[in-house]
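Quick one, tokens below. Sequence please?
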């Protein structure tokens, strides 16, 4: 009996989700992160492409975290000297978060180690053609997604908060 489109979509979604979670867990447990957690690295990575820094809302989008999560991570990174808050020249009420020289060096060091780990994990099961196909498929999913609605991040329901990450 052939699977319905819904069954196939659900199976593909679960497979994608499990692969991402499994690989992320492997990165967390076996990566050489020093004193930086993988989620903190995501913030450093998001900031690495901008000398002028990002607003918290931009970091939320880039690091795929909630406003509260990004705010806590930024506070921890700021305390350790990896990021600094700057006035936003476009909006006196806002600030921008930028890498410090120490944060940029830490990002580069961790980025080299992370890139080696990503290469190892992704190429142990996939060849170059499969990696390109995976990149194209995930890019298509992202391109078809609706733009996020402006406003606050929705509060998860009680059952969503209990689910393991």
């Amino acid at each position: 009996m052939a699977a319905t489109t819904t069954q196939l979509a659900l199976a593909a979604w679960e497979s994608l989700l499990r692969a991402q979670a499994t690989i992320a867990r492997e990165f967390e447990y076996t990566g050489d992160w020093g004193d930086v957690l993988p989620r903190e690295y995501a913030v450093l990575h998001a900031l690495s492409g901008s000398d002028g820094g990002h607003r918290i809302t931009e970091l939320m989008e880039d690091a795929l975290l909630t406003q509260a999560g990004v705010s806590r991570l930024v506070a921890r990174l700021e305390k350790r000297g990896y990021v600094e808050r700057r006035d936003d020249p476009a909006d006196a009420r806002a600030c921008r978060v930028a890498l410090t020289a120490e944060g940029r060096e830490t990002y580069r060091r961790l980025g080299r180690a992370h890139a080696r780990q990503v290469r190892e994990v992704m190429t142990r099961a996939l060849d170059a053609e499969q990696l390109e196909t995976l990149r194209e498929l995930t890019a298509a999913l992202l391109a078809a997604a609706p733009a996020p609605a402006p406003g606050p991040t929705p509060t998860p329901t009680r059952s969503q908060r209990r689910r393991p990450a």
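The helical segments are 5-30, 38-47, 56-63, 67-79, 101-123, 128-144, 158-162. Residues 76 and 132 are 36 Å apart (CA to CA).
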